[in-house]
Automatic annotation (TrEMBL):
<dbReference type="GO" id="GO:0004867">
    <property type="term" value="F:serine-type endopeptidase inhibitor activity"/>
</dbReference>
<feature type="domain" description="Serpin">
    <location>
        <begin position="22"/>
        <end position="394"/>
    </location>
</feature>
<comment type="similarity">
    <text>Belongs to the serpin family.</text>
</comment>
<dbReference type="InterPro" id="IPR036186">
    <property type="entry name" value="Serpin_sf"/>
</dbReference>
<dbReference type="InterPro" id="IPR042185">
    <property type="entry name" value="Serpin_sf_2"/>
</dbReference>
<dbReference type="InterPro" id="IPR000215">
    <property type="entry name" value="Serpin_fam"/>
</dbReference>
<dbReference type="InterPro" id="IPR023795">
    <property type="entry name" value="Serpin_CS"/>
</dbReference>
<dbReference type="InterPro" id="IPR023796">
    <property type="entry name" value="Serpin_dom"/>
</dbReference>
<dbReference type="InterPro" id="IPR042178">
    <property type="entry name" value="Serpin_sf_1"/>
</dbReference>
<dbReference type="GO" id="GO:0005615">
    <property type="term" value="C:extracellular space"/>
</dbReference>
<dbReference type="Pfam" id="PF00079">
    <property type="entry name" value="Serpin"/>
</dbReference>
<protein>
    <recommendedName>
        <fullName>Serpin domain-containing protein</fullName>
    </recommendedName>
</protein>
């Protein structure tokens, strides 16, 4: 059977988020670290920040989000909620369908007040909760409250998103979101066949890791290109309008991850997934189990890629709060984690910005992921990429 993955509908363009992911990928690969990042979580947070901005800052944010107006931005946010994150699709009673939960929150200092127009978007379009807090006198308490909220909403997967003592007396507003995903494979791996085997690291070292495989003669959605292979594994779907899948991108060369990343950096159109995947029997089919998390402060990377105006004290976030004091973006914290095993995938992500006030091919085909590779989790109909990452060492747990 051949499957043609069509270009997704809509214009939920996460190109900037993917550029940022690859920017960090290349640095982490040199360190031998695994990496995972949620373009969806980050894109939604940038969108929310854009709603509260104006002038040149708004123009720059819309440009990086590949959008023309706030109205288009709000429309896409609503589309995400209704088509992918709607309550009817979030219930855990649909045991055969992926569980997807996404929530937003806003914590504003007592000396400020969210503008009614911004609060309406926060609560309506983004389904967010908003509350007043005292950043001046109760900074540690508020920090613990936000971290606890993120941990709860990600089912305990993201802990301590915000580092201790990151709030100063100048903190005015903190936004945060929490994304949780859990999906079972449409056709599970055969746990009785999982065994340890060699995984080749970029350093040349070989480690023993548990590899999963499927039942004999089970066919897989697969395609091979010059220099790398692609494997797609769908998740179970129980009368659900969504179609989630996980993709694995395996370079032919043991040390080919860097080259593969460069291919995707130079050809962003690959994310439209115009791939002719064919169901093929893969006599040699092995994927390692892995579980890891990655956390980083994103502002430096954003600036390196040209998104600078939100971090300058230009007073263009006046659409967020009623105050004579100007706000500007200070820090952006992001954390993601993922576990892939015989049953399926569990993953989570959170993004929290802080605002402060101005003061080769084989025959027969095979897919043996015994060296560093890339992956992504995507909802096919909308084209939304929920997670993207690279496995450098399956044994590494951060």
């Amino acid at each position: 059977m051949e499957e043609q993955v069509q270009t997704p509908a809509g214009n939920f363009d996460t190109s900037f988020c993917l550029d940022m992911a690859f920017h960090v990928f290349l640095k982490e690969a040199e360190k031998g670290s695994n990496f995972v990042f949620s373009p969806f979580s980050f894109h939604c947070m940038l969108s929310l920040i854009a709603v509260g901005s104006k002038g040149s800052t708004l123009d720059q944010l819309l440009s990086f989000l590949r959008l023309k107006s706030i109205d288009e931005l709000k429309s896409l946010a609503s589309q995400a909620v209704t088509s992918v994150l709607s309550p009817s699709n979030r219930g855990e009673d649909q045991t055969r369908s992926p569980i997807v939960s996404f929530v937003n929150g806003a914590w504003v200092d007592l000396s400020f007040r969210l503008k009614p127009s911004f609060q309406e978007v926060v609560k309506g379009t983004y389904c967010a909760t908003a509350q007043e807090v005292d950043f001046v006198n109760e900074a540690n308490q508020v920090l613990n409250e936000i971290n606890s909220w993120v941990e709860t909403e990600t089912r305990g997967l993201i802990k301590n998103l915000l580092p201790q003592k990151c709030f100063g007396n100048d903190t005015a507003l903190v936004l945060a979101n929490a994304l949780y995903f859990k999906g079972a494979w449409d056709r599970k791996f055969d746990a009785s066949k999982t065994k340890y085997n060699d995984f080749h690291l970029l350093s040349g070292q070989i480690v023993q890791v548990p590899f999963m495989t499927s039942k004999r003669h089970q066919r897989h959605l697969y395609v091979s290109f010059d220099g790398y292979k692609v494997l797609k594994i769908p998740y179970q779907n129980d009368q659900d309008t969504r179609e989630f899948s996980m993709y694995f991108f395996l370079p032919d060369a043991t040390n080919g991850l860097h080259s593969l990343i460069q291919v995707f950096k130079s050809s962003p159109e690959l994310y439209t997934m115009q791939l002719k995947l064919q169901e093929q029997d893969l006599p040699e089919f092995w994927i390692p189990r892995f579980k890891f998390s990655f956390k980083f402060e994103v502002s430096h990377t954003m600036k390196e890629l040209g998104l600078e105006l939100p971090f300058k004290a230009v007073g263009e976030f006046s659409e967020m709060v009623d105050s004579a004091k100007s706000l500007f973006l200070s820090n952006v914290f992001h954390a993601s984690c993922i576990e892939v095993n015989e049953e399926g995938t569990e993953a989570a992500a959170s993004t929290a910005p802080r605002f402060i006030r101005k003061s080769r091919r084989l025959n027969p085909p095979s897919f043996v992921a015994d060296h560093p590779f890339m992956f992504l989790i995507r909802e096919e109909k909308s084209g939304m990429i929920f997670f993207i990452g690279a496995v450098i060492n399956p044994l590494f747990v951060s």
